[in-house]
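Q: My collaborator sent me two sequences in one message, no labels, and asked for predicted structures for both. Can we handle them in order? The first one she listed is below.
A: Yes, handling them in the order given. First sequence, followed by its structure tokens:
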Amino acid sequence: MRERRRLRLGILVLVSLVVLGAVPLYFGVRTLSHDPVFDTLDGLDVPSWAAAKTVDNVSGSRWCLQDCRLRERTIESQQGPKETAQAYEQALAKDGWQRWKVARCPEQIPDQPAKGSYTCWRRDELTLDLWVREPACVPPPVDGSPAPSPAPSPAAQTCTGSLVSVKVRNAIDDERTGPQPSTDPSLTGEDPFPTLTDDPLGELTPSPS
């Protein structure tokens, strides 16, 4: 009888330890796997038509071990770019984001301007890029070659709505928060060294003959 009681007691203790350890482990893994920035984006006060379909993508390390975390969200809106951009800009301002006027907003090649509305925002330790544009109605390329154009049909649906891209980064990992080069890196490759003027050591002292 004593051995049975000890065995039952041991089983109860083991089960209790497993249950007590599994619950914190579950919530810990859930916290590490889920990014709170996406919760912030989910909490934006935008109409339902402005977030018809959402796709999230995350890369990098949360602790910036090698690359800091980059959060990207692609959203399909049922309204046009103008109405959609206005809805998201109002929601961001209401949520505490401030419009960020920086030279490299948008980040692009000078001779290839971004189509649609591209704005930059900052809040606390984060930066956010918001790009609202016309939807990409052309089928993607197949095996490196353009997809064949579909035959025109009277019943074909028109391409409506808009596409929203949101990119959130840590401010310390955003190169636009630091000092900007005096020249465009896309044109020169690197910023040239400044030219020194009125330098007393710029000319060599002639040696005595």
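Q: And the one she listed second?
A: Here it is, processed independently of the first:
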Amino acid sequence: MAEQFPLRLVSSYMLAAAVRHLVFERVDGQAFAFAPGQFIQIHFHYADGKPTKRSYSVATVGVGDATPVAQIEIAVSYVDGGAATALLANLQPGETVNASGPYGRFCLFDNDANQRYLLVGTGTGITPYRAMLPQLRRVIAARGCEVNLIFGARNEHELLYDADFTAFEREVAGFRYYSCLSRVPRALPRTQDRSGHVQGLLNELQPSAEGDIAYLCGNPNMVDEAFALLKDAGLPVPHIRREKYISSK
């Protein structure tokens, strides 16, 4: 059963014009155990006193297993008029929020035996893949599988954690980081940049029913369209793992 606990804001910075990275620690001083790919929920109240909550994937880069971490990092997209935005955009270091978790099964499975992972994300849907990086390093070394990370954004300024993924690609053979930019290309294009949406790159990578497992996270329309594409390519439904990010007010 998921725990409930208060979190204290340690620090924050803007990842993009409308996305903030927040670093929390538990007020009780306890470490936080989670599997990369899981999320927490932030609990708060609307102005009329009605309780509500929002879900955020844990972005913390741990050691690649369930070893507890000292800090919980999340990325928050600002929504015009959003109640969670009003809370988290103005939160100052030392202030607290109530949380619970971890939740979810959007994780790498120990019994996976695939030859390649296709990790697809848009917006803050890229966050769980950041937490998976140490685990991916270990899986690539142990099984020799390939990992293709595919990030869809409108322009390079919206490529959240771009430096983290770029550095990881330099360090780890077998990891490829693709950027699909739908509106404006990078000022200094990279070999793995593409124009357009992630669905076009998925077609280029020729999904394999026998060798691939895909993860889809982010915009619901992207998730639905990519799911249909992968299913048409023959991937079994259990090998297409999905998590949709829906902006709520």
